[in-house]
Structure formats: C-alpha cells, structure tokens
Design goal:
Keywords: Coiled coil, Membrane, Transmembrane, Transmembrane helix
CATH topology of the largest domain: Glucose Permease (Domain IIA)
CATH superfamily of the largest domain: Glucose Permease (Domain IIA)
Helix content: 40-55%
Low-confidence stretches: none
Organism: Sporocytophaga myxococcoides
Shape: elongated
Number of strands: 14
InterPro entries: Cell_wall_metabolism_enzyme, Dup_hybrid_motif, M23ase_b-sheet_dom
Strand content: 15-25%
GO molecular function, one term: metalloendopeptidase activity
CATH class of the largest domain: Mainly Beta
Radius of gyration: 39 Å
Largest sheet: 10 strands, antiparallel
Mean pLDDT: 81
Protein name: M23ase beta-sheet core domain-containing protein
Length: 325
C-alpha cells in the first residue's frame, strides 16, 4: 500500500493531504532509473575488472602459452644460429684454409633477405602483434638462407677433398688424448695467467688435465721430428711433422713411445702424459703449428666431435683462466 503524505497548512490550521503531480512522478522515476543505470555501469565495470569470465580466462591462458612458445622458438632459432656460426668458422678457418680455397665473403653469408615487402601478405591480414610474427619469420628465412649457403660450401669442399685424401690424413684433426666427456680441457689458446709468473702471457696451445701415464696419440699422419727431454720449458716433448706446413707438439710427457724419423698414423700411440719441465700439475700441453705460426688447436678437433661438442669445447677453451704450464 502506497504511503500517504500530509503537510500542515498554516492558513486552515489543518493537515492537508500532499498531492504529487504527474510531472513529479515522472522526474522521480527518471532520477531513480538514472541512478540505477550509473550504479549498474559501475558494478559491471568493477566485476569485469576484477572477475574475468571463463572465456576471458581461457584466452588469457592461451596468450600466456603462446608467449611461452614464442620465447622457446626464438631460443631455438638463436641456438641454431650459434651452431651455424660455429660451422661457418670451421669452414672458413679450417676447411677452406686446408684446401686453399677462398672463404665465402661475409656479405654473402650475412646478407639480409628482401625488405618488409616480402612479408606484405602477413601484414595485409591485419594480424595482431604483427611485428613479432614478421621478425620471427624473417629470422627463420635468414637462417634457412645461411644453411643453404653452408651446404653449397660443403659441396665445394667435398669436390676438393676427393683429390686430397693424403693431405686430409696428415692434417691434425683429433684430440691428442681420450676426452669423451669433454672435461679434460682446462686452458685454451690465448692470453692466460702464467702459473709461475702470475701475469698474463700468450698460451700457445691447449692444456689437458690428465693423470700421469695417460696415452697420448698422434693427431695426424706424419714423421716424428723431435723427441727431446728438457729440464724446464716443455719438459719431455715430441714434435710430429705432418707435411703441408703442419707440425704438432706434445709437451710435459712422462714417457716416449716413438723415435726420431719414425712414421706415425693418426691415432697411433706416441707417448704418455706426465708432469715434466715447467709444469705445475700432470697434464698434456698440445700445440698446432701451421707455416711456422702457432695457431689455436681447438679449430682442428673436427673429426671426433659433433657440432654440439665442438661448441662446448670452444666455450671451455675461451675461458681466461690460469694455464698449467
């Protein structure tokens, strides 16, 4: 039942019934509806801001998963690029040097694909996050292009190799000792802290930490050039002349298993590791000398290592630590 309102009339000194006009009813109703509408909007805003619908929750979860997969994909692309760079370095600095072939120009290896117009079809679709999509597709295209160039380079190397089997057998191409777990390389080529003088000096080879008496093998076919015992320096050392400008040195040995002038094959036992000369711990110091210049031996471990293992050896050899001799 509607509530009846009265007011006191001072002229008649009576309570008179309050009459509400139709216009007042309309205004009151419109005011109520307006306030209700504002309140409803505020309520919906708060609800949608803090309480997501099942559909929105699902979309958010899908977006998070896609973002994760995108990051993983980019990591895989970056890793593949690193592996390809390692193969390119081997190709230019070893294979092509060995076969006296000109390295592939940097501009050819690293030329970018055609401009953004190549991906116009993707852009025309009005995709969201199109920059991410285009950049990823561009990375994949460039990776495929570099891989194609590398395969063509290997085709050329294969043709050169057919006539140089003897040279290939002579070039140092394996590690000088068993190192299947890749844990024995402790100091690489380059400037390292000298273990005695405690200053940075050029370390002209690789140090392999290994127990005394570990078998040491020739890394390529050749003729034994030096078998010498020194109280300091390299200690007991062997040098093998492989021809084609290559000589390898094996230092700080304990015992010899070859003599000067002896012909050796790759993988043949030539001595045993030790701790002679200016050595601070049992190890093998191994050098590769090409045309009279000492070069990084790591670049010649290309027969007994997979690309992933070669990448790991590169990382270990690049650490600037203290050498053992």
């Amino acid at each position: 039942m509607a509530r009846i309102k009265y007011y006191y009339d001072t002229e008649t000194c009576k309570y008179e019934r309050l009459k509400v006009s139709t216009w007042d009813l309309v205004l009151n109703t419109l005011g109520f509806l307006f306030i209700s509408f504002i309140f409803a909007i505020a309520l919906v805003y708060v609800y949608t801001k803090y309480f997501k619908s099942p559909h929105e929750t699902l979309l958010r979860r899908e977006n998070e998963e896609l973002s994760l997969y995108y990051d993983l994909l980019n990591q895989e692309i970056d890793q593949a690029n690193k592996m390809l760079i390692a193969l390119q370095e081997r190709d230019d600095n070893i294979y092509r040097v060995i076969f006296e072939a000109e390295p592939i120009p940097y501009s050819v290896r690293n030329s970018e694909m055609a401009g953004i117009t190549k991906y116009k079809q993707l852009l025309d679709r009005g995709l969201k996050r199109e920059e991410l999509i285009v950049s990823t597709v561009a990375k994949l295209d460039n990776l495929k292009k570099k891989m194609y160039i590398q395969t063509k380079s290997y085709d050329e190397i294969i043709k050169l190799a057919k006539n140089k089997a003897e040279m290939l057998a002579s070039i140092p191409a394996i590690q000088p000792l068993s190192n299947k777990e890749l844990t024995r390389l402790v100091s690489g080529f380059g400037y390292r802290i000298h273990p005695i003088y405690k200053v940075k000096k050029l370390h002209t080879g690789c140090d392999f930490s290994t127990p005394k008496g570990t078998p040491i093998y020739a890394t390529g076919d050749g003729i034994v050039k030096t078998v010498a015992s020194n109280p300091g320096g390299y200690g007991n050392e062997i040098e093998v002349d492989h021809g084609y400008g290559y000589v390898t040195k094996y230092a700080h040995l304990d015992k010899f298993n070859v003599r000067i002038g002896q012909k050796v094959k790759r993988g043949e036992l030539i001595g045993f590791s030790g701790n002679t000369g200016s050595s601070t711990a049992p190890h093998l110091h191994y050098e590769v000398i090409h045309n009279g210049k000492k070069v990084n031996p790591v670049h010649y471990f290309y027969i007994d290592l997979s690309p992933a293992e070669y990448q790991k050896i590169l990382e270990l050899a690049s650490v600037e630590n203290q050498s053992l001799s």
